[in-house]
Every structure is written in C-alpha cells, then in structure tokens.
Amino acid sequence: MTERIRERTIMDSIGAMLKRKDWSALFQHWSAALDQDERFFLASVLRQFRGHDVPPEMGFDFECLKLDAALRLGISTMVEISMRALLSLKEPTADQQIVIEGYVARVMESTATSVSFRAQLRVTAARKYGDTSSAAIALLESGRIAMVQGRFGRAEEGFMQAFRLFEQNQDTGHQADVLLNLGILRRVNVQFAEAIESFTYAERYYEQAQNIAGQITALRELGYTYRLQGDTQHATDCFQRSYDLCEHSQDEAQQALALLGLADVWGSIGRYDMAEQSLKFAWEVYDKLQHNFGRADVLLGLTQLKMLEGKFDDARAYYERLRGLIASVNDVAISSAFSPSILAAFDHKLAPAV
After folding, report:
1. Residue 338's Cα: distance from chain center in Å?
2. Of these four, 43, 83, 173, 252, which has the most CB atoms within 10 Å of its CB?
3. Across all residues in the chain, what is the average pLDDT?
C-alpha cells in the first residue's frame, strides 16, 4: 500500500506542475529522476507530458529530457520521435549541436531502436553535418539491412542514393561495393540480366580501385548468376577467373569458394570427374585452414554429386561424414545452414535399403 501511495503522490505532483505550467520545477524534478534512475517518475511524466506545449526557449531542453527518459526506459517509438525532433531543429546553437551529436552517438549504440532506424539515423545525421562520405556509407548499410528484411524497394533506393554520393566523391571502390549489393538484390528478384550487368560493372570498378578481393567476389557472384540463368560456359569462365585471381593473391579461402562454384557447374553438365576433383581440392584447402563450415559444404557437395551419378553407397558414406562433422562441432553457423529441416530430404533419399 505504501508503494501505491508513493506512486499516486508522484503522479499527482507531476499533474499539478503541468496544470500550473511550472516548467522550471518540472525540469528540476525530471532531471533529478534521471540522475536517481527513478523509473516510475520517468514513465509517468512521459505519459502525462503528451499534448503540453512548453515555452519555445525551453523546447530543446525538454526534448532532451524526453529522449533521455525514453532511452532509459527503452521506449523505441519515443526515442525515434525525439531524435527526429532534435535533428529537425533548423538553426541549433553550437552548444545544442554538440548535444545533438552526442545523442546521435548514444542512439546508434542503443538497442532501444530498430536496426533500420539506426541505419537511417546515420544517413540523416551525416547529411545534416555535410559529411557526404559518411552519408553514402550509411545509405549502403541501410540498403543492406532493408534487403535482409525483404524491403527490396527501400534497399534499391538506398543503394542508388549511395552510388550517386560515392560517384560525387569519385570513390570507385565504394561504388563497386554498391554495385555488388545491387547485383545480389537483383538476383534475389530473379532479374538475372540486370544482376549480371551490376556484377560486371562491380568487377570493373574493383579492378580500377585495385581491390583484388572485391574482384574475386564479384566474379564469383557473376558466376553463380550465370549458373542460375543456365549459361554454364560464362559461369565456368567467371569461376575460373576468380580462381586464378585467388592464386595470384594467395587467398586460399576465396580459392576454395571458386572451386565450389566450378564443381557446381561441372556437376550440372555431367562432368562428374571434374566436379569431384574441384571438390577434393576445396577439401584440401579447408582442411588445411581447419575451416569446419567449408568442410561441411564440400561433404554436402560430394553427397549431391554422388547422388547425381547414381552412386548411392558413396553418397551415403559422404553424408554420414557430414552428419558426424555437424554433431562433433559446436558451431551455430553450421547448425543453421545444415538444420534438420534441410537435411530431412537427404535422410529420406539416403535411408539404407531394407
């Protein structure tokens, strides 16, 4: 009962200050509640404060109090509303600008808001402060997040805006990053011709930027896109070029990925010997690197290859090795990629004959 009386007293006190428009007293009590982490007061004042207009000269200070309280309580909608209000201030003083930048940093580090809001906040803040490079990077990240969330229209819009800003800054390397992501987005949307164009330009831009790792990735993505389109010749050429660049750069992990791509193409056109050779070379690389995810990928590839060949005893042997590897390592990535629902089809097809 004592606690309920205390809470009622707090609510009545806030109501009285609002009714009297005693903004100075409310500001002092609110600041003290933040200092003392008095969460009931903070929750109550946020509820009761809605719809009340403070004097213009105190508007900024109260918006900061609202944002502080919302961050403390983890109220995402209130954080977003107050952050937007602060950023929309037309002519902040130098001191206010420092405060706003501090809040941007805090909100960026907070989990009180969504990932997409934080990405958009980074864009808004960078643009407001005239930092086109940071704004472009933020737009690229915002596009990536939107793509993962399935918001493809928003993702493409972010990528195109980022590309234009990087173009203004003559930042070829980041232009290539945008094109790479745009290619992935277009492939997801089954726009293969557009995806091929994006990956092709990405590879050229990476070459101009002397980014060999980027070139390798763009060529590999281009190879997979050609493979999905059924163009095995161009797919093979892309994977082979990716592999050759890996040899030049001595990037063994990327080399193994190119080998997996080659194996996929060889298997699809009945060149089972070449596919198996590529997979076994990839295994040697992953084994040397002690890369369990790569090992699992190769074992799955060998299982599928032997099934294509109709050699089910060999397929079963590779599949049992894959099962053993998954069981022996505590790896979230492997458990997710090779989940029971994904493996169920293999369990059925490779069940021992009775």
Report:
1. 21
2. 83
3. 87
Name which residue leads in pLDDT, 67 or 337.
67
Cα–Cα distance, 111 to 249 (Å, whole number):
39
Closest CA to 308 of 353, 261, 349, 262: 349
Cβ contact 123:138 at 8 Å: yes
Asked whether the CA dihedral 137, 165, 105, 148 is positive or negative, the reply is negative
User: What is the distance between the alpha carbons of residues 306 and 316, in angstroms, rounded to a whole number?
Assistant: 9
Tell me how far the alpha carbon of residue 83 is from its chain's centroid: 22
Tokens standing for residue 271: 């060149």
Distance separating the N- and C-terminal Cα atoms of the chain? 72
pTM of the predicted model as reported, rounded to 2 decimal places = 0.70
Would you list the domain boundaries of the chain?
1-113, 291-354
Give the residue with greater pLDDT, 311 vs 26.
311
Q: What does the pLDDT read at residue 352?
A: 64
